Amino acid sequence: MASSSASQKPASPMDDDKDKPRLTEKEKKANHIASEQKRRQAIREGFDRLTELVPGLAGQARSEGIVLNGTVEYIRKVMLERRAMIEALEARGATVDADLKSSLEMLPAGWLEAGGYGDSPAHSDNNGDRHRAEGSGSPGGASEPDLPEGAG
């Protein structure tokens, strides 16, 4: 005698979806708003972390543009210092590990010499001045981040 359970098909994941109640438009909107708030909070926390890590950014009014430009300039300065140290070591005959040099080789050609992303023609006005956020005491906008003594 054949059992009735043998003739039944196993439940598929699609069957499970039919049993779940659908979200209302109000619930979908609430979920979307919550997801967006979470995404924005993660971005804010990232910018806050950058202001803690990059010298000269702590305590400034947090403009995302200023934080990003300051971060780019700081990375550029550190990379220039790294290149100078590597060149000095090699001039003395030392062998520098390829891993230390690889980060310099990954940069776009001329990036260090041109002053980074913000100095591209697409980010300059007709006079060649860099666009900066308004509201600082320096000509053209935001002031440069304070660099550690002896840097720059």
What does this 3D model show about the protein?
With 152 residues, the protein is mainly α. The chain has a domain at 25-123. It is 53% helix and 0% strand. The protein has helices at 4-7, 13-19, 25-53, 64-91, 98-105, 111-114. It is elongated and about 75 Å long. It starts with a helix and ends in a 38-residue tail after the last helix.
Summarize the structure.
This protein is mostly helical and 152 residues long. It has helices at residues 4-7, 13-19, 25-53, 64-91, 98-105, 111-114.
Provide keyphrases for this structure.
mainly alpha, single chain, 152 residues, 53% helix
Task: Tell me the layout of helices and strands.
Layout: H1 4-7, H2 13-19, H3 25-53, H4 64-91, H5 98-105, H6 111-114
Helix pairs in contact: 4-5
Radius of gyration: 27 Å
Give the low-confidence spans.
118-152
Task: Report the span from N to C terminus.
Answer: 89 Å
Largest sheet: none
Classification by helices and strands? mainly alpha
Oligomer kind: single chain
Strand content: under 5%
The level of helicity is: 40-55%
Q: State the helix count.
A: 6
Mean pLDDT comes to: 73
Shape: elongated
GO molecular function, one term: RNA polymerase II cis-regulatory region sequence-specific DNA binding
Biased composition (Basic and acidic residues): 15-41
Domain BHLH: 27-78
Biased composition (Low complexity): 1-13
